[in-house]
Amino acid sequence: MRYLAFLLLVLFSVTAYGQKKDTAVGTYAENGKLISITNLTGLSDCSAVSVSGKVGKVKTDGGLARVNIKSGKSNESVEVPLDRLAPDERAVIFKQLLRKSLNIRIAGYRCEPDGPFKAFSIDRVY
Protein backbone atom coordinates (compact mmCIF):
# COMPACT_ATOMS: atom_id res chain seq x y z
CA MET A 1 0.00 0.00 0.00
CA ARG A 2 2.87 2.39 0.74
CA TYR A 3 4.36 1.76 -2.68
CA LEU A 4 1.05 2.57 -4.36
CA ALA A 5 0.81 5.90 -2.52
CA PHE A 6 4.42 6.73 -3.45
CA LEU A 7 3.79 5.76 -7.09
CA LEU A 8 0.71 8.00 -7.25
CA LEU A 9 2.63 10.91 -5.74
CA VAL A 10 5.41 10.53 -8.31
CA LEU A 11 2.89 10.18 -11.15
CA PHE A 12 1.02 13.36 -10.20
CA SER A 13 4.27 15.27 -9.71
CA VAL A 14 5.52 14.30 -13.17
CA THR A 15 2.26 15.29 -14.87
CA ALA A 16 2.21 18.66 -13.09
CA TYR A 17 5.83 19.33 -14.03
CA GLY A 18 5.26 18.31 -17.64
CA GLN A 19 2.41 20.72 -18.31
CA LYS A 20 3.01 23.27 -21.03
CA LYS A 21 3.72 26.87 -20.02
CA ASP A 22 0.95 29.29 -20.93
CA THR A 23 2.18 31.00 -24.12
CA ALA A 24 0.87 33.68 -26.41
CA VAL A 25 -1.02 32.61 -29.53
CA GLY A 26 -0.21 34.00 -32.95
CA THR A 27 -2.64 34.14 -35.88
CA TYR A 28 -1.29 34.02 -39.42
CA ALA A 29 -2.89 35.02 -42.73
CA GLU A 30 -3.01 32.68 -45.71
CA ASN A 31 0.13 34.29 -47.12
CA GLY A 32 2.06 33.49 -43.92
CA LYS A 33 2.07 37.00 -42.41
CA LEU A 34 1.60 37.40 -38.67
CA ILE A 35 -1.61 39.41 -38.17
CA SER A 36 -2.45 38.97 -34.48
CA ILE A 37 -0.98 37.96 -31.12
CA THR A 38 -3.19 37.22 -28.11
CA ASN A 39 -2.66 36.03 -24.52
CA LEU A 40 0.44 38.17 -23.91
CA THR A 41 -0.47 38.65 -20.24
CA GLY A 42 -2.74 36.95 -17.77
CA LEU A 43 -5.84 38.41 -16.18
CA SER A 44 -5.58 41.63 -14.22
CA ASP A 45 -7.68 43.73 -11.86
CA CYS A 46 -6.60 46.91 -13.66
CA SER A 47 -8.86 48.71 -16.14
CA ALA A 48 -8.88 47.58 -19.77
CA VAL A 49 -7.82 50.03 -22.47
CA SER A 50 -7.43 49.87 -26.23
CA VAL A 51 -5.68 52.08 -28.78
CA SER A 52 -5.49 52.03 -32.57
CA GLY A 53 -3.00 53.87 -34.72
CA LYS A 54 0.36 53.80 -36.45
CA VAL A 55 3.44 52.36 -34.81
CA GLY A 56 6.06 54.96 -33.93
CA LYS A 57 9.25 54.14 -32.05
CA VAL A 58 9.86 50.57 -30.89
CA LYS A 59 12.48 49.94 -28.19
CA THR A 60 13.35 46.57 -26.69
CA ASP A 61 14.69 46.03 -23.20
CA GLY A 62 15.23 42.34 -22.49
CA GLY A 63 11.83 40.66 -22.36
CA LEU A 64 9.88 43.89 -22.83
CA ALA A 65 9.21 46.03 -25.92
CA ARG A 66 8.10 49.63 -25.53
CA VAL A 67 5.97 50.85 -28.44
CA ASN A 68 4.63 54.33 -29.18
CA ILE A 69 1.29 54.38 -31.01
CA LYS A 70 0.31 57.56 -32.86
CA SER A 71 -3.47 57.96 -33.02
CA GLY A 72 -4.49 61.32 -34.41
CA LYS A 73 -2.59 63.99 -32.49
CA SER A 74 -2.00 61.88 -29.38
CA ASN A 75 0.79 59.41 -28.63
CA GLU A 76 0.19 56.38 -26.42
CA SER A 77 2.96 54.34 -24.82
CA VAL A 78 2.49 50.57 -24.61
CA GLU A 79 4.61 47.85 -22.99
CA VAL A 80 4.56 44.51 -24.82
CA PRO A 81 5.83 41.54 -22.75
CA LEU A 82 7.87 39.20 -24.97
CA ASP A 83 8.55 36.38 -22.51
CA ARG A 84 5.31 34.49 -23.35
CA LEU A 85 5.98 34.48 -27.09
CA ALA A 86 7.10 31.32 -28.82
CA PRO A 87 10.62 31.59 -30.31
CA ASP A 88 9.38 31.53 -33.91
CA GLU A 89 6.86 34.33 -33.23
CA ARG A 90 9.42 36.39 -31.34
CA ALA A 91 11.57 36.34 -34.47
CA VAL A 92 8.85 37.76 -36.75
CA ILE A 93 6.90 40.10 -34.45
CA PHE A 94 9.17 43.07 -35.20
CA LYS A 95 9.18 42.43 -38.96
CA GLN A 96 5.48 41.79 -39.50
CA LEU A 97 3.51 43.29 -36.59
CA LEU A 98 5.46 45.93 -34.65
CA ARG A 99 6.94 47.72 -37.65
CA LYS A 100 7.12 51.52 -37.98
CA SER A 101 4.13 53.15 -39.73
CA LEU A 102 2.03 49.95 -39.60
CA ASN A 103 -1.61 50.33 -38.47
CA ILE A 104 -2.33 48.16 -35.43
CA ARG A 105 -4.78 47.90 -32.54
CA ILE A 106 -3.41 47.10 -29.09
CA ALA A 107 -5.56 46.16 -26.10
CA GLY A 108 -4.22 45.90 -22.59
CA TYR A 109 -4.46 46.78 -18.91
CA ARG A 110 -3.70 50.16 -17.39
CA CYS A 111 -2.90 50.19 -13.67
CA GLU A 112 -1.38 53.69 -13.50
CA PRO A 113 -3.37 56.61 -14.92
CA ASP A 114 -0.41 58.37 -16.58
CA GLY A 115 1.95 55.48 -17.27
CA PRO A 116 2.12 53.10 -20.21
CA PHE A 117 -0.30 50.21 -20.33
CA LYS A 118 0.64 46.53 -20.63
CA ALA A 119 -0.62 44.83 -23.82
CA PHE A 120 -2.53 41.54 -23.85
CA SER A 121 -3.34 41.48 -27.58
CA ILE A 122 -2.02 43.08 -30.76
CA ASP A 123 -4.02 43.04 -34.01
CA ARG A 124 -3.09 44.31 -37.44
CA VAL A 125 -5.64 46.77 -38.87
CA TYR A 126 -6.20 46.82 -42.63
Q: How is this structure best described in words?
A:
The protein is an alpha+beta fold. It is 21% helix and 44% strand. The protein is built from two helices and seven strands. It has helices at 2-17, 87-96, and strands at residues 25-28, 34-38, 47-61, 64-71, 74-81, 103-110, 117-124. 17% of the residues are buried. The model has no long low-confidence stretch (mean pLDDT 84).
Helices and strands in order:
Elements: H1 2-17, E1 25-28, E2 34-38, E3 47-61, E4 64-71, E5 74-81, H2 87-96, E6 103-110, E7 117-124
Parallel strand pairs: 5-7
Antiparallel strand pairs: 1-2, 2-7, 3-4, 3-6, 4-5, 6-7
SS element count, helices: 2
Largest sheet composition = 5 strands, mixed, barrel
Number of strands: 7
Approximate helicity band:
10-25%
Tally of domains: 1
Order of helices and strands: HEEEEEHEE
Calculate Rg over CA atoms. Answer: 19 Å
Which labels suit this protein?
126 residues; alpha+beta; OB fold (Dihydrolipoamide Acetyltransferase, E2P); 44% strand; elongated
Brief overview:
This protein is α+β, with helices and mostly antiparallel strands. The chain is built from 2 helices and 7 strands; from the N terminus they run H-E-E-E-E-E-H-E-E.
